[in-house]
Automatic annotation (TrEMBL):
Gene3D superfamilies in the cross-refs: Leucine Dehydrogenase, chain A, domain 1
One MF term in the entry's GO annotations: methylenetetrahydrofolate dehydrogenase (NADP+) activity
UniProt domain Tetrahydrofolate dehydrogenase/cyclohydrolase catalytic: residue ranges: 1-43
Identification of the protein by name: Tetrahydrofolate dehydrogenase/cyclohydrolase catalytic domain-containing protein
Pfam families: THF_DHG_CYH
Amino acid sequence: MKRKACAEVGIKSFDIDLLEQVSEAHLISKVQELNAMTDVHAVTYVNTSLR
């Protein structure tokens, strides 16, 4: 639903799926990758185990 809403207003959206037991180092690495991307302006965390 959020992906569709983003598309409707012209916002690029993508997912990064991580294991529930992701290491702190791997998580920090992913955040650093996102920070380096000039077209990324926000990061949203969604806990899919609650769905």
